[in-house]
Structures are given as C-alpha cells and as structure tokens.
Specification:
There is one protein chain. The protein is an alpha+beta fold. Helices cover 37% and strands 29% of the residues. The chain contains 13 helices and 17 strands.
C-alpha cells in the first residue's frame, strides 16, 4: 500500500518540481549545519609570507579548507598558504571569509557547473572549440567506443578500478568519493554508467544522470573514471578525457536533451578545470551548488586583491564576476591576465579600480562578450 502511494505521489510531482524539492532540501540541510555555531572557529591565514592581505575565516572548522581553496585554488600557490595567527601585524589589509552572510559581502558559491546548450547541430557546438581541439577529436574519436555497463560485476569493477582511483589521483585529500551503493543506485536506476573502451580494453567510464530544471532536460556528468595507465600519463589523459566528454555530449544530443552539464568545478575563475570545460562550450551555471561562503573585500587594496584572486558571486539567482584593475599593470599585462576569463552564463561583470585603470581592456572585454546571445553588463567600481 505504501509503495503504491509513493508511486502515485511521484506521478503527481513533475520532474522539475522534484529537482526543486531536492535542491531546497539540500539548502536547508546546509543552513542547519551552518547554524551549529559551537562548531565554528576564527582562523587567520595569508597566501604568502609577504602578502599584505590577511584572510580571517569565521565558520565551521571542516569548511576552512574550502575557504582556502576558493581563495588560493588547488595549484602551486595553495602550498604557499601560511597560518598567520602569530604574525597578524605584517598584514595591512583584512579579507573576511565567513559562513555568516552580512551586508556588502559577496555570496561566493562553492561550486559551479559548466553547461553546454544543445538543441543545435554537433557542428554548431564544436564551432566554439579551438582548431587544435577539433583536430584532436577528429583524429581520435574513431578509436574509442562507449557502451552501457549492464552487469553488477562491470559496475563494481568501474567503481573499484576506475572511479575511485581517478578521484584520488586527481583530488588527493580533497577527493569526495561516491559511496559504492550510490554508484549502483545511479547505474541501475536514476542514471547510467557507461564504459569507455579502446579496442577490447576498458580504459574509463562515465557516470551520469538526468536532471530536469525549469522544464528543461539536462544530461549531467557526475563522475569520470579512468585506469591508472591513463591518468598517470598527462598526454594520454588529455586525449581520453576530451573524447569521453565529447561522447557524452554526442549521447545527450542524440537523446534530445536541452543541455549537457559537464559537471561541477570549484567556483574560481582561475580554476584550470573550469577553463578546460569552458573551452568545450560550457557556460557557467549554479546548477548543483547549494553552499556559499561570504567574502567581505578589504577596505583598501581591493583592486589588487581581486587582480590576484578574481571571484564569482551570486546576486539573487544571477552569476557575477568580480575583477581587479589596479594601477601599475600595462594594457598588455591586463589583457594577458584575463585572457581566459570570458564565460557564458554571466549576468554582470564588476571591474574594481581607479578612474582610468584598464580603459582599453574594458572595451576589449565588451567586444569579446558581444557575440554571446546574452552578454553581461559591465559595471565599474571605483576603489583604491
């Protein structure tokens, strides 16, 4: 009787409504977890010993690493983060990163998705790729195949030998592994698990599911997985990763989806994975994110801070980008710094600096965004 009622309830709730309910439930869980103030701490750190900026973190201890990731990323610069609890006098400017929202603070999401609009030909989609990527896909695509993992043994193998090792190799201590039971649930029910083969050899896999939001169907990548022979060879990983993404895109297009979600990335404009997905036609989207940190910019030195650490933020349900244009860098240096910071899906770009900073860059930025269907507005923020 209970199962019958559950099935009947599902038929009365649209897929879009189910997505909204799940998203709301995730946000409520996150809000309740943040409300445990007795688990909060105040920690201080700087990106480098000589940095004039001190980061004051206020929030749960387990979220401190996320704050460091959003400020410094996962690259070599993250290794230069130092605890400044005993050397606060050396810092001239304070940046407050908190789990508590406050007036004037930027609402910075933890993650963003890279979403490719479909509803057009494959040729139109790949026209946004650079020539080298298109050439690589034409050369290597015929060598690979994708097939559904049907048996429990195949799903268990993919979980054990592909998904878990690749996540650990790529993210290290930050790897968020899917529980094996969840992999089976997705593969056998709400989504699918595809094996990537080169000849007769299984070298990777793709775990994905359908999401319906606002009446639109998204095919969403949850995880890629690869064998050690692939992920330990940087050149081979680039090739296989590109082809796996391309095959998932092909499949989503064939199945009539409205969008292909390449998956979540750390919400940093400088993040290498986000740039990788942008080059494959992904527009940034808050799909899948439900957690935020709130960043209060320094009162002085704002432009230089955002030059070093550009930031995404959310206003309502709109995504914004915050860039610094400090005095000093030449026009060529500014153009080089922000060469890859053209993202589809933005509502507004804020440029912080003096009255004459980066004039030629702003005009160039307008031109680079002009070919988008909905280009963002640009707003100057005067600061020192």
């Amino acid at each position: 009787m209970k199962a019958t009622l559950t099935a009947a309830a599902r038929t009365l709730v649209s897929p879009s409504m189910r997505y909204e309910i799940r998203h709301l439930a995730s946000k409520v869980r996150e809000l309740l977890a943040r409300a445990c103030f007795w688990r909060w701490e105040v920690a201080r750190f700087r990106l480098q010993q000589e940095s004039p900026y001190e980061i004051v973190y206020i929030g749960r201890r387990q979220q401190r690493e996320m704050a460091k990731l959003l400020i410094a990323g996962k690259g070599p610069g993250s290794a230069a983060i130092i605890d400044s609890a005993s050397a606060t006098a050396a810092a001239k400017h304070v940046v407050v990163v908190s789990e508590m929202p406050s007036a004037g603070a930027l609402s910075v999401p933890h993650y963003l998705s890279a979403v490719v609009p479909l509803g057009r030909s494959l040729e139109d989609i790949t026209a946004r790729y650079d020539s080298e990527l298109r050439r690589s896909i034409r050369k290597h695509r015929p060598l690979y195949q994708m097939r559904l993992a049907r048996s429990d043994d195949e799903i268990a193998m993919a979980d054990r030998d592909l998904l878990r090792p690749y996540a650990s190799a790529r993210q290290g201590i930050h790897a968020a592994q899917f529980p094996s039971a969840e992999v089976f649930r997705i593969a056998k029910g709400v989504g699918r698990l595809d094996l990537i083969t080169l000849g007769d050899e299984v070298i990777g896999c793709h775990l994905g599911c359908e999401v319906v939001r606002g009446g639109k169907r998204y095919w969403s990548t949850l995880r890629f997985g690869y064998c050690q022979a692939v992920f330990s060879d940087a050149r081979r990983l680039r090739e296989v990763n590109s082809i796996t993404t391309f095959m998932a895109l092909e499949w989503a297009l064939e199945q009539g989806f409205d969008y292909y979600d390449i998956g979540l990335c750390l919400a940093r404009p400088d993040d290498g994975l986000l740039k990788w997905k942008r080059r494959r036609g992904g527009d940034i989207d808050a799909l899948g994110n439900h957690a935020y940190l709130f960043v209060r910019l320094p009162r002085t030195g704002t432009a230089k801070f955002l030059w070093d650490t550009p930031m995404f933020a959310v206003e309502g349900d709109k995504l914004t980008l915050h860039l610094g244009l400090p005095e000093g860098p030449s026009d060529d240096e500014v153009a080089s710094r922000y060469q890859e910071m053209v993202f589809g899906g933005l509502h507004k770009i804020y440029c912080y600096g003096g009255s004459r900073a980066g004039e030629s860059f702003l005009e160039n930025l307008r031109q680079r965004y002009a070919n988008l269907q909905s280009p963002p507005t640009l707003e100057r923020v005067m600061c020192n």
